[in-house]
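Here comes my example:
=====
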Amino acid sequence: MNNATLFAIGAYFALMLAIGVYAWRKSTSDSSEYLLSGRSLGPAVTALAAGASDMSGWLMLGLPGALYASGLVESWIAIGLFIGAWANWLVVAPRLRAQTESYGNALTIPEYLGNRFEDQSHRLRLVASLVIVIFFAIYSASGLVAGGKLFQTAFGFDYQAGLWITATVVVAYVVLGGFLAVSLTDFVQGCIMMVALIVVPAAAVLGLPETSSVRATLDAIDPGMTSLLGGTTALAIVSAAAWGLGYFGQPHIIVRFMAIRSVKDIPTARRIGMSWMGISLLGAIAVGLVGRAFAESNGIAVADPETIFILLGETLFHPLIFGFLLSAILAAVMSTISAQLLVTGSSLTEDFYRLFIHRAASEGEIVTVGRLSVVGVAAIAMLLAQDPEGSVLKLVSHAWAGFGAAFGPLILFALTWRRMTLAGALAGMITGAAVVMIWIQFGWDSSLYELLPGFIAAALAILVVSLVTKPPQAETRAHG
Protein backbone atom coordinates (compact mmCIF):
# COMPACT_ATOMS: atom_id res chain seq x y z
CA MET A 1 0.00 0.00 0.00
CA ASN A 2 1.37 3.39 -1.04
CA ASN A 3 2.55 5.68 1.76
CA ALA A 4 0.44 8.54 0.38
CA THR A 5 -2.69 6.42 0.68
CA LEU A 6 -1.83 5.43 4.23
CA PHE A 7 -1.21 9.08 5.06
CA ALA A 8 -4.69 10.06 3.80
CA ILE A 9 -6.32 7.30 5.85
CA GLY A 10 -4.30 8.27 8.91
CA ALA A 11 -5.32 11.92 8.51
CA TYR A 12 -8.97 10.86 8.31
CA PHE A 13 -8.71 8.80 11.51
CA ALA A 14 -6.96 11.67 13.27
CA LEU A 15 -9.74 14.06 12.27
CA MET A 16 -12.44 11.73 13.63
CA LEU A 17 -10.61 11.34 16.93
CA ALA A 18 -10.01 15.11 17.16
CA ILE A 19 -13.76 15.69 16.76
CA GLY A 20 -14.36 13.13 19.52
CA VAL A 21 -12.03 15.01 21.86
CA TYR A 22 -13.68 18.34 21.00
CA ALA A 23 -17.14 16.93 21.73
CA TRP A 24 -15.88 15.34 24.95
CA ARG A 25 -14.78 18.73 26.22
CA LYS A 26 -17.92 20.52 25.06
CA SER A 27 -20.94 18.27 25.53
CA THR A 28 -20.65 15.29 27.88
CA SER A 29 -21.40 16.72 31.31
CA ASP A 30 -24.79 15.02 31.74
CA SER A 31 -27.00 12.40 30.11
CA SER A 32 -28.98 14.92 28.04
CA GLU A 33 -25.78 16.24 26.48
CA TYR A 34 -24.10 12.86 26.05
CA LEU A 35 -27.17 11.11 24.62
CA LEU A 36 -28.85 13.98 22.69
CA SER A 37 -26.43 16.95 22.62
CA GLY A 38 -28.89 19.04 24.62
CA ARG A 39 -31.25 19.30 21.61
CA SER A 40 -29.01 21.95 20.09
CA LEU A 41 -28.10 20.74 16.58
CA GLY A 42 -28.48 23.11 13.64
CA PRO A 43 -30.30 22.11 10.43
CA ALA A 44 -27.20 21.36 8.32
CA VAL A 45 -25.60 19.09 10.93
CA THR A 46 -28.95 17.39 11.60
CA ALA A 47 -29.58 16.79 7.89
CA LEU A 48 -26.19 15.32 7.02
CA ALA A 49 -25.95 13.41 10.29
CA ALA A 50 -29.30 11.75 9.54
CA GLY A 51 -28.23 11.02 5.97
CA ALA A 52 -24.74 9.72 6.72
CA SER A 53 -25.92 7.53 9.60
CA ASP A 54 -28.60 6.15 7.28
CA MET A 55 -26.52 5.22 4.28
CA SER A 56 -23.69 3.14 5.81
CA GLY A 57 -21.35 0.88 3.86
CA TRP A 58 -24.11 -0.32 1.62
CA LEU A 59 -24.11 3.06 -0.20
CA MET A 60 -20.45 2.69 -1.20
CA LEU A 61 -20.26 -1.11 -1.41
CA GLY A 62 -23.64 -2.89 -1.33
CA LEU A 63 -25.71 -0.71 -3.67
CA PRO A 64 -23.01 -0.25 -6.35
CA GLY A 65 -22.36 -4.00 -6.15
CA ALA A 66 -26.04 -4.77 -6.76
CA LEU A 67 -26.12 -2.38 -9.74
CA TYR A 68 -22.88 -3.89 -11.07
CA ALA A 69 -24.31 -7.41 -10.94
CA SER A 70 -27.94 -6.87 -11.99
CA GLY A 71 -28.22 -3.49 -13.68
CA LEU A 72 -30.52 -0.50 -13.34
CA VAL A 73 -33.40 -2.57 -11.99
CA GLU A 74 -31.67 -2.51 -8.59
CA SER A 75 -32.32 1.25 -8.52
CA TRP A 76 -35.81 0.58 -7.20
CA ILE A 77 -34.24 0.24 -3.78
CA ALA A 78 -32.83 3.77 -4.11
CA ILE A 79 -36.13 5.14 -5.43
CA GLY A 80 -38.06 3.64 -2.54
CA LEU A 81 -35.51 4.95 -0.04
CA PHE A 82 -35.65 8.48 -1.44
CA ILE A 83 -39.45 8.61 -1.22
CA GLY A 84 -39.41 7.07 2.26
CA ALA A 85 -36.81 9.54 3.54
CA TRP A 86 -38.79 12.49 2.20
CA ALA A 87 -41.95 11.23 3.92
CA ASN A 88 -39.96 10.67 7.11
CA TRP A 89 -38.79 14.30 7.17
CA LEU A 90 -42.29 15.52 6.38
CA VAL A 91 -44.38 13.39 8.75
CA VAL A 92 -42.14 12.10 11.54
CA ALA A 93 -39.49 14.80 12.06
CA PRO A 94 -41.58 17.76 13.30
CA ARG A 95 -43.95 15.63 15.37
CA LEU A 96 -41.22 13.58 17.00
CA ARG A 97 -39.19 16.69 17.88
CA ALA A 98 -42.23 18.27 19.55
CA GLN A 99 -43.66 15.20 21.25
CA THR A 100 -40.43 13.80 22.72
CA GLU A 101 -39.99 17.11 24.50
CA SER A 102 -43.61 17.46 25.61
CA TYR A 103 -43.81 13.86 26.87
CA GLY A 104 -41.34 14.13 29.74
CA ASN A 105 -38.37 15.38 27.68
CA ALA A 106 -37.67 11.81 26.51
CA LEU A 107 -34.05 11.12 25.53
CA THR A 108 -34.64 7.80 23.76
CA ILE A 109 -37.32 6.32 21.51
CA PRO A 110 -38.36 3.67 24.08
CA GLU A 111 -38.63 6.39 26.76
CA TYR A 112 -40.87 8.48 24.49
CA LEU A 113 -43.09 5.48 23.80
CA GLY A 114 -43.33 4.64 27.51
CA ASN A 115 -44.30 8.22 28.37
CA ARG A 116 -46.66 8.52 25.42
CA PHE A 117 -48.71 5.49 26.51
CA GLU A 118 -48.34 5.96 30.29
CA ASP A 119 -46.71 2.55 30.58
CA GLN A 120 -46.40 2.14 34.34
CA SER A 121 -45.25 -1.48 33.95
CA HIS A 122 -42.41 -0.42 31.58
CA ARG A 123 -43.16 -3.41 29.35
CA LEU A 124 -43.17 -1.28 26.21
CA ARG A 125 -39.83 0.37 27.02
CA LEU A 126 -38.26 -3.00 27.80
CA VAL A 127 -39.50 -4.69 24.60
CA ALA A 128 -38.48 -1.67 22.51
CA SER A 129 -35.04 -1.68 24.08
CA LEU A 130 -34.60 -5.40 23.41
CA VAL A 131 -35.56 -4.96 19.75
CA ILE A 132 -33.05 -2.11 19.45
CA VAL A 133 -30.22 -4.13 20.99
CA ILE A 134 -30.90 -7.27 18.91
CA PHE A 135 -31.30 -5.65 15.51
CA PHE A 136 -28.61 -3.02 16.03
CA ALA A 137 -26.12 -5.73 16.92
CA ILE A 138 -26.82 -7.25 13.49
CA TYR A 139 -26.81 -3.83 11.81
CA SER A 140 -23.52 -2.80 13.43
CA ALA A 141 -22.03 -6.13 12.38
CA SER A 142 -22.83 -5.30 8.75
CA GLY A 143 -20.82 -2.10 9.08
CA LEU A 144 -17.88 -3.95 10.58
CA VAL A 145 -18.02 -6.49 7.73
CA ALA A 146 -17.79 -3.58 5.30
CA GLY A 147 -14.81 -2.17 7.21
CA GLY A 148 -13.10 -5.55 7.29
CA LYS A 149 -13.64 -6.01 3.55
CA LEU A 150 -12.23 -2.57 2.88
CA PHE A 151 -8.98 -3.18 4.74
CA GLN A 152 -8.68 -6.67 3.26
CA THR A 153 -9.29 -5.55 -0.33
CA ALA A 154 -7.59 -2.16 -0.40
CA PHE A 155 -4.74 -2.64 2.05
CA GLY A 156 -4.11 -6.36 1.93
CA PHE A 157 -4.70 -6.53 5.68
CA ASP A 158 -6.08 -9.57 7.39
CA TYR A 159 -9.89 -9.37 7.63
CA GLN A 160 -9.76 -9.57 11.42
CA ALA A 161 -7.30 -6.68 11.56
CA GLY A 162 -9.72 -4.62 9.47
CA LEU A 163 -12.52 -5.36 11.92
CA TRP A 164 -10.42 -4.29 14.88
CA ILE A 165 -9.20 -1.06 13.29
CA THR A 166 -12.71 -0.02 12.26
CA ALA A 167 -14.25 -0.87 15.62
CA THR A 168 -11.49 0.72 17.68
CA VAL A 169 -11.64 4.13 16.00
CA VAL A 170 -15.45 4.27 16.04
CA VAL A 171 -15.74 3.21 19.66
CA ALA A 172 -13.05 5.71 20.67
CA TYR A 173 -14.83 8.82 19.40
CA VAL A 174 -18.31 7.63 20.43
CA VAL A 175 -17.14 6.87 23.96
CA LEU A 176 -15.33 10.20 24.15
CA GLY A 177 -17.83 12.63 22.68
CA GLY A 178 -21.25 10.96 22.66
CA PHE A 179 -24.05 12.35 20.50
CA LEU A 180 -22.26 15.56 19.55
CA ALA A 181 -19.20 13.64 18.36
CA VAL A 182 -21.36 11.25 16.36
CA SER A 183 -23.29 14.12 14.75
CA LEU A 184 -20.25 16.24 13.89
CA THR A 185 -18.31 13.28 12.49
CA ASP A 186 -21.41 12.29 10.50
CA PHE A 187 -21.56 15.79 9.02
CA VAL A 188 -17.93 15.61 7.89
CA GLN A 189 -18.35 12.04 6.69
CA GLY A 190 -21.47 12.95 4.72
CA CYS A 191 -19.54 15.64 2.86
CA ILE A 192 -16.72 13.21 2.06
CA MET A 193 -19.13 10.55 0.82
CA MET A 194 -20.99 12.90 -1.52
CA VAL A 195 -17.83 14.29 -3.11
CA ALA A 196 -16.44 10.77 -3.65
CA LEU A 197 -19.66 9.56 -5.28
CA ILE A 198 -19.48 12.44 -7.77
CA VAL A 199 -15.77 12.12 -8.58
CA VAL A 200 -15.44 8.34 -9.03
CA PRO A 201 -18.11 7.68 -11.70
CA ALA A 202 -17.10 10.86 -13.56
CA ALA A 203 -13.49 9.65 -13.74
CA ALA A 204 -14.63 6.17 -14.80
CA VAL A 205 -16.59 7.61 -17.73
CA LEU A 206 -13.50 9.53 -18.83
CA GLY A 207 -11.49 6.33 -18.51
CA LEU A 208 -13.58 4.39 -21.03
CA PRO A 209 -12.00 3.66 -24.42
CA GLU A 210 -12.91 6.29 -27.03
CA THR A 211 -14.94 3.76 -29.00
CA SER A 212 -16.99 2.70 -25.98
CA SER A 213 -19.97 4.16 -24.15
CA VAL A 214 -21.57 3.09 -20.90
CA ARG A 215 -24.93 2.21 -22.43
CA ALA A 216 -23.52 0.35 -25.43
CA THR A 217 -21.18 -1.68 -23.23
CA LEU A 218 -23.94 -2.60 -20.77
CA ASP A 219 -26.38 -3.46 -23.57
CA ALA A 220 -23.78 -5.78 -25.05
CA ILE A 221 -23.58 -7.61 -21.72
CA ASP A 222 -27.36 -7.75 -21.27
CA PRO A 223 -29.94 -5.36 -22.80
CA GLY A 224 -31.90 -5.51 -19.55
CA MET A 225 -29.08 -3.90 -17.58
CA THR A 226 -30.05 -0.39 -18.67
CA SER A 227 -33.78 -0.77 -18.03
CA LEU A 228 -35.64 -0.08 -14.81
CA LEU A 229 -38.04 -2.87 -15.75
CA GLY A 230 -35.66 -5.26 -17.45
CA GLY A 231 -35.90 -8.89 -16.47
CA THR A 232 -37.97 -8.31 -13.35
CA THR A 233 -41.53 -8.62 -12.09
CA ALA A 234 -43.99 -6.23 -10.50
CA LEU A 235 -43.59 -8.13 -7.22
CA ALA A 236 -39.81 -7.69 -7.32
CA ILE A 237 -40.17 -3.95 -7.94
CA VAL A 238 -42.62 -3.57 -5.05
CA SER A 239 -40.29 -5.64 -2.87
CA ALA A 240 -37.30 -3.40 -3.66
CA ALA A 241 -39.20 -0.12 -3.33
CA ALA A 242 -40.59 -1.30 0.02
CA TRP A 243 -37.20 -0.44 1.53
CA GLY A 244 -38.58 3.10 1.84
CA LEU A 245 -41.09 1.98 4.47
CA GLY A 246 -38.23 1.25 6.80
CA TYR A 247 -37.34 4.89 7.40
CA PHE A 248 -40.14 5.52 9.88
CA GLY A 249 -38.71 2.92 12.27
CA GLN A 250 -34.95 3.45 12.23
CA PRO A 251 -33.97 4.69 15.72
CA HIS A 252 -30.49 5.83 14.64
CA ILE A 253 -32.06 8.12 12.02
CA ILE A 254 -35.15 9.47 13.74
CA VAL A 255 -33.26 10.21 16.97
CA ARG A 256 -31.57 13.00 14.97
CA PHE A 257 -34.96 14.69 14.66
CA MET A 258 -35.17 14.75 18.46
CA ALA A 259 -31.89 16.65 18.72
CA ILE A 260 -32.52 19.53 16.28
CA ARG A 261 -32.71 22.83 18.14
CA SER A 262 -36.19 23.80 16.90
CA VAL A 263 -39.13 22.46 14.90
CA LYS A 264 -38.80 25.63 12.79
CA ASP A 265 -35.42 24.37 11.54
CA ILE A 266 -36.84 21.13 10.14
CA PRO A 267 -37.91 22.41 6.67
CA THR A 268 -34.39 23.75 6.09
CA ALA A 269 -32.88 20.49 7.31
CA ARG A 270 -35.24 18.53 5.04
CA ARG A 271 -34.15 20.45 1.94
CA ILE A 272 -30.47 19.99 2.77
CA GLY A 273 -30.89 16.33 3.64
CA MET A 274 -32.91 15.37 0.56
CA SER A 275 -30.50 17.21 -1.76
CA TRP A 276 -27.58 15.35 -0.23
CA MET A 277 -29.40 12.05 -0.47
CA GLY A 278 -30.44 12.51 -4.10
CA ILE A 279 -26.90 13.33 -5.21
CA SER A 280 -25.40 10.46 -3.19
CA LEU A 281 -27.86 7.83 -4.43
CA LEU A 282 -27.40 8.87 -8.06
CA GLY A 283 -23.64 8.69 -7.53
CA ALA A 284 -23.85 5.17 -6.06
CA ILE A 285 -26.02 4.02 -8.97
CA ALA A 286 -23.52 5.51 -11.41
CA VAL A 287 -20.59 3.77 -9.67
CA GLY A 288 -22.26 0.38 -10.20
CA LEU A 289 -23.27 0.89 -13.84
CA VAL A 290 -20.27 2.88 -15.02
CA GLY A 291 -18.00 0.57 -13.05
CA ARG A 292 -19.38 -2.48 -14.89
CA ALA A 293 -18.86 -0.77 -18.25
CA PHE A 294 -15.33 0.30 -17.26
CA ALA A 295 -14.35 -3.19 -16.09
CA GLU A 296 -15.74 -4.87 -19.22
CA SER A 297 -14.17 -2.34 -21.61
CA ASN A 298 -10.74 -2.64 -20.00
CA GLY A 299 -10.80 -6.40 -19.43
CA ILE A 300 -10.65 -6.10 -15.64
CA ALA A 301 -11.85 -9.09 -13.60
CA VAL A 302 -13.96 -8.18 -10.57
CA ALA A 303 -14.18 -11.04 -8.09
CA ASP A 304 -16.57 -9.27 -5.70
CA PRO A 305 -19.01 -6.72 -7.19
CA GLU A 306 -19.27 -4.98 -3.80
CA THR A 307 -15.66 -3.82 -4.19
CA ILE A 308 -16.14 -1.98 -7.52
CA PHE A 309 -15.82 1.45 -5.87
CA ILE A 310 -12.46 0.42 -4.41
CA LEU A 311 -11.25 -0.98 -7.74
CA LEU A 312 -12.16 2.20 -9.62
CA GLY A 313 -10.46 4.38 -7.03
CA GLU A 314 -7.24 2.36 -7.08
CA THR A 315 -7.15 2.21 -10.89
CA LEU A 316 -8.05 5.78 -11.77
CA PHE A 317 -6.53 8.01 -9.08
CA HIS A 318 -3.25 9.06 -7.51
CA PRO A 319 -2.54 7.16 -4.27
CA LEU A 320 -3.22 10.25 -2.15
CA ILE A 321 -6.63 10.76 -3.79
CA PHE A 322 -7.24 7.03 -3.52
CA GLY A 323 -6.69 7.38 0.20
CA PHE A 324 -9.36 10.08 0.29
CA LEU A 325 -11.76 7.77 -1.59
CA LEU A 326 -11.11 4.96 0.84
CA SER A 327 -11.86 7.43 3.60
CA ALA A 328 -15.26 7.93 1.97
CA ILE A 329 -16.01 4.24 2.42
CA LEU A 330 -14.79 4.39 5.98
CA ALA A 331 -16.99 7.46 6.46
CA ALA A 332 -20.03 5.56 5.23
CA VAL A 333 -19.24 2.60 7.44
CA MET A 334 -18.25 4.49 10.56
CA SER A 335 -21.04 7.07 10.46
CA THR A 336 -23.67 4.37 10.68
CA ILE A 337 -21.87 2.18 13.22
CA SER A 338 -21.31 5.14 15.52
CA ALA A 339 -24.96 6.18 15.40
CA GLN A 340 -26.12 2.64 16.05
CA LEU A 341 -23.73 2.08 18.93
CA LEU A 342 -24.78 5.31 20.61
CA VAL A 343 -28.52 4.64 20.23
CA THR A 344 -28.07 1.11 21.58
CA GLY A 345 -25.93 2.34 24.47
CA SER A 346 -28.48 5.07 25.19
CA SER A 347 -31.29 2.54 25.32
CA LEU A 348 -29.38 0.19 27.61
CA THR A 349 -28.58 3.13 29.87
CA GLU A 350 -31.90 4.99 30.03
CA ASP A 351 -34.36 2.16 29.36
CA PHE A 352 -32.68 -0.59 31.35
CA TYR A 353 -30.01 0.59 33.81
CA ARG A 354 -31.73 3.75 35.06
CA LEU A 355 -35.16 2.14 34.94
CA PHE A 356 -34.49 -1.26 36.51
CA ILE A 357 -31.09 -1.18 38.26
CA HIS A 358 -30.35 2.27 39.71
CA ARG A 359 -33.12 4.84 39.48
CA ALA A 360 -31.19 7.35 41.58
CA ALA A 361 -28.02 7.16 39.45
CA SER A 362 -26.12 10.42 39.15
CA GLU A 363 -25.60 12.10 35.79
CA GLY A 364 -21.94 11.16 35.87
CA GLU A 365 -22.79 7.53 36.53
CA ILE A 366 -25.29 7.46 33.64
CA VAL A 367 -22.70 8.85 31.22
CA THR A 368 -20.20 6.22 32.38
CA VAL A 369 -22.74 3.41 31.96
CA GLY A 370 -23.55 4.76 28.51
CA ARG A 371 -19.90 4.56 27.52
CA LEU A 372 -19.55 1.02 28.86
CA SER A 373 -22.72 0.00 27.00
CA VAL A 374 -21.23 1.25 23.73
CA VAL A 375 -18.16 -0.91 24.28
CA GLY A 376 -20.30 -3.95 25.13
CA VAL A 377 -22.51 -3.67 22.05
CA ALA A 378 -19.44 -3.18 19.85
CA ALA A 379 -18.01 -6.42 21.24
CA ILE A 380 -21.20 -8.32 20.34
CA ALA A 381 -21.17 -6.82 16.83
CA MET A 382 -17.55 -7.95 16.44
CA LEU A 383 -18.57 -11.54 17.22
CA LEU A 384 -21.37 -11.39 14.63
CA ALA A 385 -19.02 -9.97 11.98
CA GLN A 386 -16.55 -12.87 11.97
CA ASP A 387 -17.65 -14.19 8.55
CA PRO A 388 -15.82 -12.24 5.83
CA GLU A 389 -18.10 -13.76 3.20
CA GLY A 390 -21.16 -12.05 4.65
CA SER A 391 -22.96 -9.79 2.18
CA VAL A 392 -23.13 -6.20 3.39
CA LEU A 393 -26.41 -5.59 1.57
CA LYS A 394 -27.99 -8.79 2.94
CA LEU A 395 -27.07 -8.03 6.56
CA VAL A 396 -28.32 -4.46 6.22
CA SER A 397 -31.55 -5.60 4.57
CA HIS A 398 -32.45 -7.90 7.48
CA ALA A 399 -31.72 -5.31 10.16
CA TRP A 400 -33.48 -2.54 8.20
CA ALA A 401 -36.55 -4.74 7.86
CA GLY A 402 -36.54 -5.63 11.54
CA PHE A 403 -36.54 -2.01 12.64
CA GLY A 404 -38.88 -0.87 9.90
CA ALA A 405 -41.54 -3.42 10.79
CA ALA A 406 -41.16 -3.28 14.58
CA PHE A 407 -40.98 0.51 14.94
CA GLY A 408 -42.26 2.01 11.68
CA PRO A 409 -46.04 1.60 12.10
CA LEU A 410 -45.64 2.11 15.86
CA ILE A 411 -43.95 5.51 15.45
CA LEU A 412 -46.35 6.66 12.72
CA PHE A 413 -49.46 5.78 14.70
CA ALA A 414 -48.05 7.06 18.00
CA LEU A 415 -47.35 10.45 16.46
CA THR A 416 -50.58 10.84 14.49
CA TRP A 417 -53.38 8.70 16.05
CA ARG A 418 -54.54 9.60 19.54
CA ARG A 419 -56.76 6.51 19.80
CA MET A 420 -53.74 4.20 19.79
CA THR A 421 -53.26 2.22 23.01
CA LEU A 422 -50.42 0.66 24.97
CA ALA A 423 -51.67 -2.82 24.10
CA GLY A 424 -51.79 -1.83 20.44
CA ALA A 425 -48.23 -0.54 20.62
CA LEU A 426 -46.94 -3.78 22.13
CA ALA A 427 -48.91 -5.90 19.66
CA GLY A 428 -47.59 -3.93 16.70
CA MET A 429 -43.95 -4.03 17.76
CA ILE A 430 -43.92 -7.73 18.59
CA THR A 431 -45.91 -8.68 15.47
CA GLY A 432 -43.69 -6.67 13.14
CA ALA A 433 -40.45 -8.12 14.52
CA ALA A 434 -41.85 -11.67 14.61
CA VAL A 435 -43.14 -11.61 11.03
CA VAL A 436 -39.77 -10.37 9.77
CA MET A 437 -37.85 -13.11 11.58
CA ILE A 438 -40.30 -15.82 10.47
CA TRP A 439 -40.16 -14.56 6.86
CA ILE A 440 -36.36 -14.79 6.87
CA GLN A 441 -36.31 -18.16 8.66
CA PHE A 442 -38.52 -19.81 6.02
CA GLY A 443 -36.62 -18.25 3.12
CA TRP A 444 -39.59 -16.27 1.84
CA ASP A 445 -37.43 -13.13 1.65
CA SER A 446 -36.02 -14.43 -1.64
CA SER A 447 -39.31 -13.61 -3.37
CA LEU A 448 -40.69 -10.72 -1.25
CA TYR A 449 -38.69 -8.41 1.02
CA GLU A 450 -39.61 -9.22 4.60
CA LEU A 451 -40.17 -5.57 5.52
CA LEU A 452 -43.41 -5.31 3.54
CA PRO A 453 -45.35 -8.17 5.17
CA GLY A 454 -43.88 -7.23 8.55
CA PHE A 455 -44.94 -3.59 8.19
CA ILE A 456 -48.47 -4.50 7.08
CA ALA A 457 -48.90 -7.08 9.85
CA ALA A 458 -47.70 -4.61 12.50
CA ALA A 459 -50.03 -1.87 11.25
CA LEU A 460 -53.01 -4.22 11.32
CA ALA A 461 -52.11 -5.43 14.82
CA ILE A 462 -51.94 -1.83 16.08
CA LEU A 463 -55.28 -0.91 14.52
CA VAL A 464 -57.19 -3.99 15.68
CA VAL A 465 -55.81 -4.17 19.24
CA SER A 466 -56.10 -0.40 19.81
CA LEU A 467 -59.75 -0.37 18.73
CA VAL A 468 -60.70 -3.14 21.15
CA THR A 469 -58.79 -1.73 24.15
CA LYS A 470 -59.22 1.41 26.20
CA PRO A 471 -57.02 4.38 25.21
CA PRO A 472 -54.68 5.88 27.83
CA GLN A 473 -56.04 8.84 29.74
CA ALA A 474 -53.16 10.99 28.50
CA GLU A 475 -54.65 10.92 25.05
CA THR A 476 -57.38 13.28 26.09
CA ARG A 477 -54.68 15.95 26.05
CA ALA A 478 -53.77 17.58 22.80
CA HIS A 479 -50.24 16.94 21.63
CA GLY A 480 -48.81 18.08 18.29
